[in-house]
Amino acid sequence: MHRLLKRQLKRHFQETVPETFQPLLQAISSAYEQADLDREMLERSLALTAEELLERNQRLSQNLQTQQQAQADLKASYEILDATLNASKEGILVVSADTDRPIAVNKHYLLLMGLSEERINHMTGADLFRNSFLQLFEGQQLYDQLKEMRNHEHGSHRIYPMRKGGWLEVYAVKHPVAGYIWMLRDISEIREKEETITYQAQHDSLTGLPNRVLLQDRLELSINRAQAQHSRIALCYIDLDGFKTINDSLGHASGDKLLIEVALRLKQGIKPQDTLARVGGDEFVVIMDDISSQDEVLQRADNMLATLMPPVELDQRSFFIGASIGIAMYPNDGESTGLLMRNADIAMYRAKANGKNCFHFFTPSLERIAQHRLQMETELRKAIEQDQLELYYQPKVFLQSDPRGARTGQLHSFEALLRWQRPDGSFVSPESFIHIAEEAGMISQIGQMVVEKACNQARQWLNEGYESNISINLSPRQFLIPGFHEDIVDTIRSYGIPSAMISVEITESLLMQDLVSARGVLEYFRAHDVFVYLDDFGSGFSSLNYLKTLPVDAIKIDRTFVRDLSTSRADRAIANTIITLGKQLNKLIVAEGIETVEQANFLIDSGCDLAQGYFYGRPVNGEAARHYFQLSPTLPTATSPLAKPGASE
């Protein structure tokens, strides 16, 4: 019986409950028990529902947090994408292929296309395309690019000149999801640099005139045009008279000023449509198109000479500069650029032979030209026989003080420079006769003479108590003579002087003629204590790998890199690089062409070992060179490590 029913019966019946009530009581007890069971089930159900609700609530909270984090991440991603797009130097535009509306654009695109954010919000892809069309020259190409973009999965690339100036690079591609993607880049600065590089490659750095490369192109164009129009061309080859004298006496800085002045004057003496180019140190070329007659060329050549007649002021002194002009006519004197240049050059030498400061037309007969060359060859042979060729000596000095006794400015050695003085006292430049000596087969004789004179001078100085190295220059033709290096060493020995008192200077171009033979010669010199300078370093095309492996003892920095050290950051960087490179390769570094205290101080601070140039001493004959010994308080002896060039390395 249910416990609640028992409690009720006990409260209301003191005696035993009649038997007749038993079925009823059993039914009531069952009802109580069923009620308890139902309540228990209800409570259990309620408990389970509360737990489930609590779990669901927790899951909802977690889902909500996840969604909030996702939204924050998405917002951050949009911000990163927006920052990335706006940080790009390219203008970027994305247009939906479905709605034809812009769905992404950065600030650089707005800047390039002259738009604002407010305006672009009201524009369609077609509006933006029309705006781009108006911003660019050759806008019609945009339509072609749009077609390419639609037909090629790799997109389309074009470059456009902009109406506001500059250049725009446009890349367009169609993406299956994003739509039409346009990327714009302002390449004006790049184009300017490319144009600058092209300009520098085609123009002379000193005068700004076209150089030989651009002259060749323009001459070919002129010939093609003249051929089509059946017209004539005059090519004038101009060589300044007396320039080398001025350049040698006043220095390269004054020589450069003179060349600039000459270029300005020659421009005044020609027509605007003519081409004036500088093709060499003091050589210029003029192309005259549409020539009506030879008299016209004659008058215009006279005008050019007239512009050069007034004196030029240099270093508070007045100098008169003339020019020799050779003239070749198209088509009579040649129908190719090479032939016209050669014939004009021949005519120019004839003008020089006629007394300079004049012009001469090329003629088919080269007899007089040959006579001039033969005369020079004859005079040179006579000069060799009469011992008119002599050596001048230019000092090389220490730039760095040395614990072993060397001091900055102290004499280190000499370079022997060949000079030809005619009986009338005039000097013939080596540039005027060395090539004749090479072609006429006299270079071997002259080379041997130079070695003997240098050895003889070294012997005289040694007898007087002076010991200093003398370096001699080797020509390319001399390098081709079999056994010449052995002859040099034998000559040194015959004068009874140490081999270390004579050194040789070779150029980069000479080495590259025959590297295998050159290596053998250099190794022979090293084995016999003959010091080797690599001259004009940086002016040729030698591989650094050759420099690393060849037995070269010293590097001479080419004077073209020394000349502008006080004004050119590029030349200072090149000089520093050569010095550093030489030090790393354990080479002695020599700078030539020093003319100012600024150049000298820079090279001293940069660690350059030796210097040579007018600042430290001009080339003088052997007698006058003794003066340089007297300027050195202490002199290297035969056993001193300073006696041999490079011993201070």
Q: Can you tell me about this structure?
A:
This protein is of the alpha/beta class. The protein folds into 4 domains: 3-80; 91-190, Beta-Lactamase, CATH 3.30.450; 203-364, 2-Layer Sandwich (Alpha-Beta Plaits), CATH 3.30.70; 390-630, EAL domain (TIM Barrel, Alpha-Beta Barrel), CATH 3.20.20. 51% of the residues lie in helices and 19% in strands. The protein has 24 helices and 21 strands. The strands form 4 sheets. It has an 8-stranded mixed β-barrel, surrounded by 4 helices. A hairpin with a 6-residue loop joins β1 and β2 (102-105). α9 (243-250) packs antiparallel against α10 (252-268). The longest helix has 66 residues, at 22-87. It is elongated. It starts with a helix and ends in a 19-residue tail after the last helix.
First and last CA, distance: 124 Å
State the name of the first-level CATH class of the largest domain: Alpha Beta
Helix content: 40-55%
Work out the strand percent.
15-25%
Name of the CATH homologous superfamily of the largest domain: EAL domain
Which class best fits the helix and strand makeup?
alpha/beta
Mean pLDDT: 85
Q: What is the alpha-carbon Rg in Å?
A: 46 Å
DSSP strand tally: 21
What oligomeric state do these chains adopt? single chain
CATH topology of the largest domain: TIM Barrel
Q: Please summarize the sheet with the most strands.
A: 8 strands, mixed, barrel
Unreliably modeled segments: 633-649
Instruction: Examine the secondary-structure arrangement and name the CATH architecture of the largest domain.
Output: Alpha-Beta Barrel
Q: State the domain count.
A: 4
Please work out how many helical segments DSSP would assign: 24
What is the global morphology? elongated
- In spatial order, strands of the major sheet run 13-14-16-17-18-19-20-21
